[in-house]
Amino acid sequence: MEIKWLSYVPMYIALCEEKSIAGAAKKLCCSNAHASRQLRQLEEILSVQLIQRTTRQFNLTYDGLRFYQQVKGLMEGAEQINEQVMESDRVAGHLRIAASASFGAALLNRALIEFRQLYPEVTFEVIFSETPVDLIESGFDVAFFFTNNPPEGYIGHYLRSLHCKPFAHKAYLSNKPSITTPEDLYQLDHIVYRNEELNLDTWDFHHMETKQKVSVALQSVLSFNLVQSMLEATLAGCGVAMLDEFALEKLNGEERSQLVPLLPEWQTDAILPLYILYPKREHLPKRTQAFIEHFKQQSF
């Protein structure tokens, strides 16, 4: 719907505040004739007299005063909106982030600190979850999840995959037979990752020199849906856990020295690609763009 009088509002406000045609014309850098003509056209559009003019007086009518009060508020609101839009060009504001509970802390802590140092006007809310969430419905700007298939409607940037190795505590291994092949793992107790959608109990190993391939299905004595819980159980000597270096980053030197990597000549296939996900939108806020670019430059 066309609002015919809208383009006349700046001139009308200037007329009301300067209380003269000449003053309004000077303020808006136009001629007196142009200012007078705009007032006349505005009154014709509205079919009401807004200003009572004589050679010596310049007074608002009742309708003119009401119209001024309304359009003044309208223009102030428009200016606030314009300021907010202009501010959106700065890297500032609030970011809501969803991340895998198992790897989120190790992944995010260092990078978040670095990003905050670069952009101190950005604030964060981080929610950890093992189940991927609907970013749009839940109001998240960015998410970090391990998935083989990034959901439709989202852009996914690959960061890394998991490369897990079997680890056990020295004390647990002290009375166990030597482990030289993947099949030897059957002799040990296993701590396994499991959630509603994923059960990581079957692993494919390949020998780095001979290229021999072996697949083992591990029977668990303990299963968790949090890698941190798996790590704590491993440190307590409860068995062997397949862990990525991600999980070991928060350990202190003493704890790390107590964990022994098994089968050093064997590797497992990379699993579970880690993606940074964000909604597919034509225009992302500057803070979201900067955050995504920051993580793309990280080495994981």
CATH architecture of the largest domain: 3-Layer(aba) Sandwich
Largest sheet composition: 6 strands, mixed
Strands, total number: 16
Give the helices and strands as they follow along the chain: HHHEEHEHEHEEEHEEEEEHEHHEEEH
- What is the residue-averaged pLDDT? 85
**Beta-strand percentage?**
25-35%
- Distance separating the two termini: 53 Å
**What structural category characterises the helix and strand content?**
alpha/beta
Oligomer: single chain
Stretches with pLDDT under 50, minimum 5 residues: none
How many helices? The count is 11
Q: How would you name the CATH homologous superfamily of the largest domain?
A: Periplasmic binding protein-like II
Rg calc:
33 Å
Number of domains: 3
State the helicity in percent bands: 25-40%
CATH topology assignment of the largest domain:
D-Maltodextrin-Binding Protein, domain 2
C-alpha geometry: rod-shaped
Task: Write a structural description.
This protein is α/β, with parallel strands linked by helices. The chain has 3 domains: 6-87, Orthogonal Bundle (Arc Repressor Mutant, subunit A); 93-160 and 273-296, Periplasmic binding protein-like II (D-Maltodextrin-Binding Protein, domain 2), CATH 3.40.190; 165-269, 3-Layer(aba) Sandwich (D-Maltodextrin-Binding Protein, domain 2). Helices cover 37% and strands 28% of the residues. It has 11 helices and 16 strands. The chain has helices at 9-18, 21-27, 32-46, 62-87, 104-118, 135-138, 170-173, 227-235, 245-248, 253-258, 286-296; strands spanning 51-53, 58-60, 93-100, 122-129, 142-146, 154-162, 165-169, 190-194, 199-200, 202-207, 213-217, 220-224, 240-243, 259-261, 266-268, 271-279. Strands 7, 8, 9, 12, 13 and 14 form a 6-stranded mixed β-sheet that branches. α1 packs across α2, α1 (9-18) packs across α4 and α2 crosses α3. The chain starts with 8 loop residues before the first helix and ends with a helix.
